[in-house]
Amino acid sequence: MAQAPLLQLSNISLTFGGNPVFDALDLVIQPGDRVALVGRNGSGKSTLMKVMAGLVEADQGARSLSPGTTVGYMEQDPDFAGFATLGEFAAQNLDPSEAYRIEMAAEGLDFDPALSPERASGGERRRAALAKLLAEAPELMLLDEPTNHLDINAIGWLEARLRETRAAFVLISHDRAFLRALTRATLWVDRGQVRRRESGFDGFEEWRDTIWAAEDDARHKLNRKIKAEARWAVEGISARRKRNQGRVRALAALRAERAGQIKRQGTAAMALETAPPSGKLVAELEHVSKSFGDRPILRDFSLRVMRGERVAFVGPNGAGKTTLLKLITGQMEADSGTIRRGTNLEMAVFDQTRAQLDPNASLWENLTGDPLMRVSGQADQVMVRGTPKHVVGYLKEFLFDEAQARAPVRSLSGGEKARLLLARIMAQPANLLVLDEPTNDLDVETLDLLQDILGEFDGTVLLVSHDRDFIDRIASTTLVFEGEGRVTAYAGGWSDYLAQRPDVKAPVEKTAAATPAKGKPKAAAKSGLSFTESHRLEALPAEIARLEAEIAKLADLLSDAELFTREPVKFRKATEALAARQEALEAAEEEWLTLAEKAEG
């Protein structure tokens, strides 16, 4: 007997500001669904997820849940009013006996549950909201950009949790590796229409391009038919006393059909112009050390960066990636050691905090107020790579419409803020790009374009990112921050790092990123294993370590001899959780042994 759907949207229509977002939308989420929700920035992905969560009411149509189904939504900007700590916020809907779930999630996501919301960063608040959702364990989880503000270790932990859950979930994410690893179906939001594909994110782009090619072909045929009918209407009138009104009406209908087609949004017209070349040496660090108080960031670290290199900085939040960037670029001095910087460096910086943007000023003011972009005596012109351009025209190149030009930056989405910052840094020639988390909030198409632009850039790129796929596509060298001031350089990207360190317990699964040269997945490193099995073998040690840590926490909780008498419900739930994790650990260890034996032939 078929299971009833968890969630169903029927004939949903929604309009914001006179523009239709969705019209006559039907959508079903089944038990166990693992869905990627994809689409361009501004296409309505987050709005659709809020409709699914019941937070936005449609103009018409129905939202129905299967009886007893619980739905959890990860809030982008959670309200912490009335909560003294992040942990108190995350545990607000839990029975006290289940509070240990928050501790486990906090450890995996790397935040302090005892921290007050006032002292917490935006990233820590978002991690607390994610912990709340995971601990509540609803039957349907709705996750809007859950990997933003997570480091690679935390992304690996979250990936493992979602892989083993029995709940259904819908994911919005820019992280290709994350989507490929977890999803089995794809919802594509495009110009108010939602298409479903019964396959995960891998292959989405080929599917999308096939649909667009068929759409272009149909539009071309329609245009040819309109031209033929219009020629008949004009040229044939002298041979007839009166027109064939049926064909005239048909021509009008064809033109109305073409007018009613919604034009696809183009890609941003992003471009970089390389400044005159820097010296061959960009930076050289010899035996550099840096600490903050008693916390070492770098210990006896040496590095040489040459012109044209793409260097990725990878490691946990707070490990010192931004500090090393500042040391290389001269924004900070080392405690000891020597730093030599190259000549003729012209630098452009993409700051992950978007601090270069004034949130209360308009997009127009943020561009014209930049001294490097200002055109003397022209309030409506900006200087773009040496050529004056009208500010609205330049904004349109980055997919902003004229109405947005006078809107405050604070009204923009995360992806729109990222595009505006790219517009600023791409206006000036540079030969050194410093990109601190540039991929956050950008859609897949813009990421593809940014990757292509960086591939053609003749200068040097310093990149901080937690996006494994993007690192694989861009980096020629990866610096891994291993803790206690240790930083090691590896040739290539993230997957290359894992291949060069087979003894390390990889914090996340090796990505199946496409290489820039061939555009195809890298071959499995393990002989005798399929590509998927090779990745699974590399991911299992981290999964086993996580289960062992959770078992140790639960065993410590149950070691309290008075727990059964004092809190019987908490004792029962902890016992059940311990048994489930011991079973999962046994299965993971057995799977590892099987794959390891197969790899050895």
Can you tell me about this structure?
- By secondary structure, the protein is an alpha/beta fold.
- It folds into 5 domains: 7-205, Rossmann fold (3-Layer(aba) Sandwich), CATH 3.40.50; 206-260, no CATH class; 267-346 and 433-440 and 459-489, P-loop containing nucleotide triphosphate hydrolases (Rossmann fold, 3-Layer(aba) Sandwich), CATH 3.40.50.300; 357-428, no CATH class; 531-599, Helix Hairpins (Orthogonal Bundle).
- 39% of the residues lie in helices and 22% in strands.
- The strands form 5 sheets. It has a 6-stranded mixed beta sheet, sandwiched between helices.
- Helix 16 packs antiparallel against helix 18 (568-599).
- The longest helix has 32 residues, at 204-235.
- It is globular and about 80 Å long.
- 36% of the residues are buried.
- Mean pLDDT is 83; it is low at 504-526.
Blueprint of the fold:
Layout: E1 7-16, E2 19-29, E3 34-39, H1 45-53, E4 60-65, E5 71-73, H2 86-90, H3 100-109, H4 122-136, E6 140-144, H5 152-164, E7 168-172, H6 176-182, E8 185-190, E9 193-197, H7 204-235, H8 245-260, E10 281-292, E11 295-306, E12 310-314, H9 321-329, E13 336-341, E14 347-350, H10 363-368, E15 374-375, E16 378-384, E17 387-390, H11 391-397, H12 414-425, E18 432-436, H13 444-456, E19 460-464, H14 468-474, E20 477-483, E21 486-491, H15 494-500, H16 531-558, H17 563-566, H18 568-599
Parallel strand pairs: 3-7, 3-8, 5-6, 6-7, 12-19, 12-20, 14-18, 18-19
Antiparallel strand pairs: 1-2, 1-4, 8-9, 10-11, 10-13, 15-16, 16-17, 20-21
Helix pairs in contact: 3-4, 7-8, 16-18
